[in-house]
Amino acid sequence: MDEQKSNCEENDSEPTDDSASAHQSISLQGSPRVSPAAADKSGSNTASSSTPECIRACALCNCVDRSLLGQRELRHFRSSSERPTNKPSAFPLPQPGNDDLSSIGFSDSSCLTALFDDSGCWVHHWCAVWSDGVKQTEDEELEDVDKAVISGTQRLCEYCKRLGASIQCHVEGCSRFYHFPCSAASGSFQSMKQLVLLCPEHIDKAEELGEEAWCAVCDSVGELTELLFCTGCGLHYHASCLEIGATPIQRAGWQCPECKVCQTCQPGEDSKMLVCDACDKGYHTFCLQPAMDSLPSDPWKCRRCRVCMECGVRGLMLPGSAQWFENYNMCEECQQHRSSVCCVCSKAANPSVGLQCCGICR
């Protein structure tokens, strides 16, 4: 049998205990924000288990500091005189997003006051810089970030339909707003030099930006909808020029070949970099748990991108030692069930009647 399987676990495919403790914060408004990693690693809610750690998350995209979606570092911005005075919500803040595009932003604006601490709010660098109304001073300080947060909690993202959107399409009269990760996932055009975003409806306007809209490989505009935006250097690449896809999960937080770093330890040892076949993000073989001795010859997926096509379980919900089959599309439990039950009558195998195995799908 030639099933593909892997026992790898990426220790930075999710916020780790170490990173959570490095950015631990006091719970806001009495409603602690629980790290998804703490929930995954706890195993079960027993009486002896300790209280999950609270971690800071962006007040716009709701992702943690070490996000994989290209927002850069989490920064603290002081509040102006227009700090929200709403009464605290009876509902707790949602758990910080786990870099899944479906968990970006907020579903309810009632948590506005809980997004601010005594002196201000926490926002990712790029989420703040790109936000509508934010000004940059001569000494490169950012102003009115808190105002962008207040406005963002009232705006739905055009892509994910959740609140917290603060980046508007540059075309006059266009009312589309996005979260920073969603702007890339939607296929919008982004100019890092001019901090200009053009939604998919107005992406043709990118040609007016000249060389900034050129692909770094073929030096031409080509098909604008196929351009990938590097969150590291700001250059654009046609997906076809790199022979990769252009799915939303690949676009969000994408790094070009020159900027790509390990999502666990950052720069270094590029020769031992594994690149996920689904999201195109890199991981060192020695940063995985357990570590790998060499680069695999078959396509490889990180834990975040493993989803069982039978039961729907995601890789992050299973221990790192769990085996995967069918190009990481079948979890170990479903594979065992498939090999012991007839696909026609759904009856289990017995000693008197053997099961025939398909040579293609097993």
Topology:
Blueprint lengths: L16 H6 L13 H7 L31 E5 L41 E5 H5 L5 E2 L5 E2 L1 H8 L14 E2 L8 E2 L1 H6 L3 E3 L4 E3 L28 E3 L6 E3 H4 L5 H4 L21 E3 L6 E3 L39 E2 L4 E2 H9 L22
Antiparallel strand pairs: 1-2, 3-4, 5-6, 7-8, 9-10, 11-12, 13-14
Report low-confidence residues grouped into runs of 5 or more: 1-32, 34-52
DSSP, total strands = 14
Major β-sheet profile: 2 strands, antiparallel
Q: SSE order in H/E notation?
A: HHEEHEEHEEHEEEEHHEEEEH
Helix share of residues? 10-25%
Q: Terminal Cα separation, in Å?
A: 8 Å
Question: Strand sequence of the main sheet, in spatial order?
Answer: 1-2
CATH topology tier name of the largest domain: Herpes Virus-1
CATH architecture of the largest domain: 2-Layer Sandwich
CATH class of the largest domain: Alpha Beta
- Average pLDDT reading: 79
Question: Treating each run of at least 4 consecutive H or I residues as one helix, how many helices?
Answer: 8
Beta strand %: 5-15%
Return the domain count. Answer: 2
CATH superfamily of the largest domain: Zinc/RING finger domain, C3HC4 (zinc finger)
